[in-house]
Every structure is written in C-alpha cells, then in structure tokens.
## 1
Amino acid sequence: MATMTLVQAIRDALSVEMERNPRVVLLGEDIGRNGGVFRVTEGLWERFGPERVLDTPLAEVGIVGTAIGMALYGLRPVAEIQFADFIYPAFDQIVSELAKFRYRSAGQFPAPVVIRAPSGGGIKGGLYHSQSPEAYFVHTAGLTVVMPSTPADGKGLLVSAMRSPDPVIFLEPKALYRTAKGEVPEGEYDVPLGKARTVREGTDVSIITYGAMVPVGEGAAAEAEKEGVSVEITDLRTLWPLDVEAVDRSVQKTGRAVVLHEAPRTCGLGAEVATLVQERSFLHLKAPVARVTGFDTPFPYSLERKYMPGVRRTLDAVRTAVNF
Amino acid sequence: MGLRLLTALRDDGTIDPALDPALSREDLLFLFRKMLLLRALDEKAVLLQRAGRIGFYVPSSGQEAAEIGSGYALREGDWVFPSYRDHGVALLRGYPLETLVGQLFGNASDAMRGRQMPNHWCDRAARVVSVSSPVATQLPQAVGAGYAAKLCGDRIAVIAYFGDGGSSTGDFHAGMNFAGVYQTPTVFFCSNNQYAISLPVSLQTASGSIAEKAAAYGFEGIRVDGNDPLAVYRVTRDALARAREGGGPTLIEAVTYRMGPHSSSDDPTRYRSGEEIAEWTKKDPITRFTEHLRKAGIVGGGEAETLAEEAREEVLRAVKACEGVSPVPPESMVEDVYAEMPWHLVEQRKLLSPDEG
C-alpha cells in the first residue's frame, strides 16, 4: 500500500495497465510533454513514448473519433477530454458512434474506448470548467459511466474500465484530485464495475451519492450522528448500469433515501434513483425520497458554494426525511 | 485555380496511355461485371422499395466507376470506412451479395439482425466497418484505425468514403487535420456526386474543388474523373500504395453524378433539371466503360447485354434467398447493447409484448 492522491492513483492505473498491455494508448490535449493540465499523465510520455501518449490537435471530435478507430482496430485507447465541459463537440461521436457500434454491427465491431474527463465544480471554474454531464451519458444505451471518489477506487475502477469490453465514460471529480488522499494497493489492482461501495453503515437514512459528494455526505452523516440519527452512505461508483441491489438493500434497511449529487436536478441521475427506489422499495419507505442536487441553472462562478450541495443542505434533507 | 481533372477514358473510347493502369482482360471484365451487378442491385432495390417490400434504399446509380474502381484497388488487409452509399465497395471485399440483400430486408437473413435501415451494413471479415447515418463521422475513425495499424507495424492502408456534403463537416476537418499531423496511412475518398440531398456542390463550398482542401492539411489532393473506372482505379491504387509505404494520407475527389435520388424518400425533380440529368446520362460510367471494352475488343456483339442480364439474375437469386425469411426474434432487441446484458435490460426484456409490434 502507498498513500496517494486521486491524481496519483489515476496515473498509477494508467501506468500499470500500459506496462501490462502494449495495446493501451493515451491521447488528448496537452497530455504528453506537459503531462496534462491536471498533471494526471505526468511522466507517461517520457516513459512510454510519443507513439503511445499522443498530444492531439485541439479538437474533441478528432480525439474521440480517432480513439474509436483505434479501438475498432484492436487497441485500447484512453482519451482525455481536458474538462468534461468540453466534451460536447465530441457528443455525436460518443452518442451516435461509440455507444452504438456494438449494437449496430451485431457484435462485430465493439469499440472499447475509455474517455476520461475531469468533472464537477469546486475549483472556481465557472460555467465552463465545472459541469457535471453524467446524465447525458447515463441516458445513452451502450455506455458505462463511472465516477470514483477515493484514490483506491480511482485506480481500481480505471483499470477495470481499461479492460472492459464496452466503452466507458470515466468522470474524475476534479475537486478531489488533490484533496482525496488514501491507501492504494500497489501493482495490479482492480475494482469491479457495476458494484457500489458502502461508505458507512447506518440504520435511519440512506444517502445514495457518488464522486465529490461522497465527502459531503460523510460530513452530513457525522453531524446527524450528533443528533442521534444513523446515516448509511452508498457510493455508486458506477453510475450506469448502477448497482441496483445495493440501493435496494440500503433503502429497504433504513426506509429513507436521500439522493445527493452536484449535477442539475431535473432529469439528473437522482431522478432515476428516486424512481427505482419507489418502484422497488415502495412498501419499505417511511418518507418521500429526497433529492439534494445542484440547481437548474448554468454553473455559477461567484456563487459556486451556494450552487453545490454542502453539508448543511444535505443535513436538512436527512432531518426532513427522519421527521416526516 | 483548381486542380486538373484526371481522366483515362477518352470520349472516343480509347485510353490515355499516361493514366492507363494496364489491367488484364480478366481484370477489366471483373470490374465491368461488378459495375453491372451494382447497377442491377440498385434497379431491383428501388423497385422493391416502391413495392413496399423493403423500407428504404440509398441508390448509387451513376457512381459505379468511383465505387468499383476505388474498391478494386484495395488489398486484403486494408480497412474500409464506408458511407451509406458505398455498397459497391463492399461487394469487392468478398462481401456476399446475399448478405447485402439480407440487410435490405432486415429479417433473420440480416447479419446485423435488423438493427439499421437499409444500406447500413458491415462485415468484420471483409474489414468493412459499420456504417452510420451521421455524415463523415467515419473520417476521424479511419484516421484512428490507420494510426493503430501503423503502431502495430501492419503495412496496410485505410480508406474512408464520404460525399461532397461530408466535406463541410467538422469531422472532415478534424479527420483530415489529425491524418496530416500523424501522417496516418489514410486515403480520404470523396465521391463528389454534385448534390448533398438538394444542395449543389457550388453552395456546399466556395473552394474551386474539394481535392484542393488537402493542401491546407499538408498532403496531396487529387481530382479524378469519377465516371472513369480506370482513372479512379489508377489514382486510388497509387494513393493506397503510398499510404502502405509510410507516405501518409491522400485526399481523392472523384467527380461523378448521382443519377438517382438521394434516397427512396427524395424527389430530385424539386431541385435539378431534366437537361442536367440528360447531360450526365451521356457520361454514364457503364456506357463509357462498355464503349471502351468494345473498342478494345474485350466485349463484342451483344455480350454486354448478356453480362447485364447475368447480373440481374444474380440479384434476383439473392432477393429470393432473403425475402420471406423469418423476422428477427423480438428478444434480440436488447442484445448487443453491452457485451453482457445488464440487469435493467434483463428486466426490460420481460416487457416485450407478443401482441405488439
């Protein structure tokens, strides 16, 4: 075990898998000589060479389109989109091409591309360096959508993504890049896709969350504990196809669910989780399913801290659920 | 301004020795047969669509020389990223006619399991990549495949087909730019058939040609007579060879004409004149090639018509084999979305109603 930040853990995953599998290649803007604007790929260009760590021209459609062609041919490309906010020029390549290749070719042309993108707010990035676009990709059949919240999961989930037969949108909570530190197994290590993690056990309320909101949920759970309320937290880790059994299990135990994410509220992943809870656990519920989310506005620059769910808003939702 | 249009077949049916690819008699007959087969497939498919026996069709009549001439230049290991109008190329890759026709019917005879509209086919064994409807998305993908081949040390070329409309897209720009930067073994083959649905190429671009756009990306653009199978074959063969040898990408613009509608849903009388069609009909690639083969003494008398009849019979046999085959099984709808079926699709599979659809 080594103590790593999330950035270091993701770099370790790339490095270990590139060492193990010569077909893994990285491509993206400024990821080579510069090591990426967040330094995730630092040192990999020197270690694996410019043929496997490609600095690309500035065109997301080119990055994703090229990655798809590489994957069709048999490589395992890992594309970096510098910020998830800049993924939209590649939307057609992701939604109409990447996600549908297996289906439209009846399995003849799978396209196992991993697209990494720093996601979410918390770095004073304003409208265009803060967005949480996961719902678009969750809504698109054929994609697997992943977001880690710890360094160990950052490594283990990314390794699994690079070995997945399906395309994976791997969203990295940039707010946690350097603030999340933890023990990470060295060498080969993977965490299965599609399996949630119980962050803490509890009996009164279930918080279902992911990414940078996991520590916010933990903060709210610690406050609730002082009030005698026991909170269980489930970190989804894989946003889709999500671990529905883990959600069922937790909600059926506590009877109360609070879904927590920083993405906008309407048609956010929380809406889907809330629906799954009422469809599958209706008779267990003691309170309506609550959503604690970002607002249905563009992501604001100055009011970032008001926009993003914090401990206070989360705790309010927990209290409301308990006192219903 | 503009690039010279390269033509091998002269108006009198003779060939310009400077561009003559010097194909054998057998090769020439093979090309001719495939052009006739493509025309026969088109004519039959249009009738099938009008009769309601297939849902849709994208014809390529008038473009047989561009399709067959370029496709014939490919070698076994090469990869093809086609558009929806490039079934002629597929036919040259050992792609069985029955597989093409089965895809038109979208029943159990369709190797793609009825997933897509007609003309959206693929075949892994033939290295013909799956076609989508969004225009020119295959261009950056072809660059990626070429990059991968180079990295793996495979001396192959990748050809990407698109039309004049596709040259306006961002994907064209990104694909061309990436290919130039990485010097990938990619041949961009633009069938400039003069129209993107209704829009004439004069309103698609203010460039003197599509081929000259290559200069901006740092590689060669070639403008070839797209109704001349021998000139198309010659320039494509040379571009593919250069790509395989590490010489980087080429853009080929084949100047041709879409004699039919954009698709079975289109009415071209709304946007072009009968005089224009008549003018291009004189340059019909099959007529021109027939004339050349007659002049060269390769087909004589009524032989061309006999070969055309053989092609029509071959198409009829394929239609007979595919039409009336059982429909695709309903549960196949939720298969191939992921490598393994996730829980939510297992659940949704139960919602399929035997009484609906």
## 2
Amino acid sequence: MTLWDAQVGESVRVTGLAATGSGRRRFLDLGFVPGTLIEVVRRSPLGDPVAYRVRGATIALRGVDARQILIER
Amino acid sequence: MAKSPDIGCRSCGIASCAGAQLAHGEHATTVALAGNPNVGKTSVFNALTGLRQHTGNWPGKTVARAEGSFAHNGRMFCVIDLPGTYSLSARSAEEEVARDFICFGRPEVTVVVVDATALERNLNLALQTAEITERLIVCVNLLDEAKRKKITVDLDGLAAELGVPVVGTVARAKRGINELKDLIDEVASGRLVPKPRMVEYSEEIERQVAELVPRIASLVGNALPARWVALRLLEGDRTILPRAVAHAKEINASPVPAETT
C-alpha cells in the first residue's frame, strides 16, 4: 500500500519509494526515508493534497506524489 | 558583466554592502546563512545585522534576497540570508539560489541554522553543505522551544560528531549571537579550521565516486570539491558539470583582487 491509502489520524511507516532519480532524492530530502514514522494530519477540502507530519515538520503532498511512497501500517 | 567595484563585498557585487563602511580596497568577509524553512533563520539574520540591511531579488529570479552587515572585533562582515530550503539539490528556484551561492558565491563562512526541536530533519542540510565547504558553522536555534518541549541538545557532542563548530542560540532574544559572531570571525580568519565529517556512501557509490573524482578534478581544479560534483553527477544532475567548469574558468581568468597587479 502507499501513503495515499493512509487515513487521517493514522500513523504509518515508510517501507520504500517508487520514485527514482531526482524525484526520489526530493522525497528523501523532505524526510520520507524508509523506516520513518509518518502521521496523516489532515486532508484538504477537495481531498488532495494531504498534510503529513514527518520528522518534526508538516509537509503537504499531492496524490500523485503520495502514491509513490510505500508504507506499512 | 559589470566591472567589480573597488570597495565593498566582492560576492554580493555591490559597492557598499548594506551600509558596511569600508576603506578603499578593503573587503568585507562574506557569510552565507542557510537553513530549512521555519528555523528562525531570519531572526538570526536580524540579530546579527540589526538595521543594516538591504532587500531585493536574486538576479533573474523571483526569490527574495536579503543582505546585511555587522562589525565584530574590528572586521566587517557581509551576511547573505539564503532562502529556506530542505536540501541543496537545486530542484526549485530557492534551492538553486542557495546552492549556487554556497558553490559559486564563495562565502568565507557558511552558517547552517538548524531547529533544535527537529535536528534529525535539519542536519540533512548541514551534511550536504559540509560536502561543498568545510568553512561551516552549525547554529542550533530555537533552544527555548526545545526546552519547552523538554529536549536538551548536547552541543559539544554535536560539534564532535559533525566535526564543525556548533553554537546554541535563541535568536529572538539575541541569546548566543555574540558567540556566533566570535565563531564566524574565528573560522573566517582561519584561527579555527572545521573538519567536517563526511557522509560515507555505499561501497558501489564510493567506488564510482573514486573513479570520477580525478577526471572531474582535471576539469574544475579546486574551484569546487570534485567529490561533491561526482555525487551530483551520480544523482543524475546534468547542470552541475558545465556550471562548475565555467566557474573554474572564471576563477582562473580573474584572480580575486583586481588592483594588486
């Protein structure tokens, strides 16, 4: 499953990234590193983007990006 | 390109950097301030420079640029407040500005401001910066917020682990700013030489880096660390090599002070 499938209030753990190259690097720079715990903070009124709490900062991701982050519950 | 002015700050290219009063031929020491968004970097900038500030935009970019100056121990320092970024990967205009200034603006000292309450996240930028320049200081800001959250930061331990000087600050209350100025002066003058600990990558990456480094060094000389350029190339960054080569030519064509010859 991917980060996009996680529900608001849930805490999940990153298991991998589907992105490659500079897109992958971008996720890593933002703190989406395998092993990281992520909390789903809130969904925007239209459902996309979604705000996530990652290593002490709140980061909003669009659905296309959240679907590239692999997670486990 | 315009001729560089006789006085003032060679890196910011303006005759008098934000009110820095300089005698003819004297030049201010350039200090770059980098950091993640929301770490109080601008508070540190304000605490360092007070009201001696200029704001504007980076040439050709809609990215705000602030510079200021301060005097300390009889020297003038010109501070450039870089945009807040999580990394130096140059994936956005802000990151590109920050990366280019640290790489090509040749600041004498780079201060990375980090958030004491989110060190894990913030140290990524410090480690990336250490790959470009060893004249690096880490400023752990928001120590008051950390205290409120019952977080204690072992500043000495951090300095030992990173191999660079570390100073703790509460910039809003101007706490630690004088120590930061002392450190900037010591690193700028060469009395203190940071020895940043480098990230060691996996065996395969290190092998490829070792293969690339001599070839890159023959192209860019010592204009930029060859190891850093090699890592960017392995990441697929195609823009860095041509820029580094152009930068190396520029440096060789005009050695810094034009008036000594």
